[in-house]
Each structure stands twice: as structure tokens, then as C-alpha cells.
Amino acid sequence: MESVAAVFAGTAFALFGAALLLWTGARALHRAPVLHGVSPVASTALTTLFGVVFLALGVWCFTRL
Prior knowledge:
single chain; mainly alpha; 2 helices; 80% helix
């Protein structure tokens, strides 16, 4: 039963992290603001950091199986 929860959590974290990194990359590639009203460098760096953290958390959940 615990493996089902780990798979679900790992999938959710990995998908969110990958989508966040993909979205941030697409916005940065088109030179569009990642977040309105905030420094472009700070918002890009912060969303990239959170994308990597969520992706790593998803991978960590998969290793707990």
C-alpha cells in the first residue's frame, strides 16, 4: 500500500517539476516574462530552482519503492 502512495507522489512531483522547467524554458526562450512585476532574472532563477527541486523530489519518491 505504501508503494502506491510513493508512485502517486513521485509521479505528481516529477510531472509538476518537469512541466515547470519546460514552461520556464519556453518563456525564457521567447524572452517573455516568467512572472509579471518581478525581476526577470530572479523569477527565472526561482522557478528553475523550484522545478529542479520538485523533479528531484519525484525521483527520490521513486527510489523509495
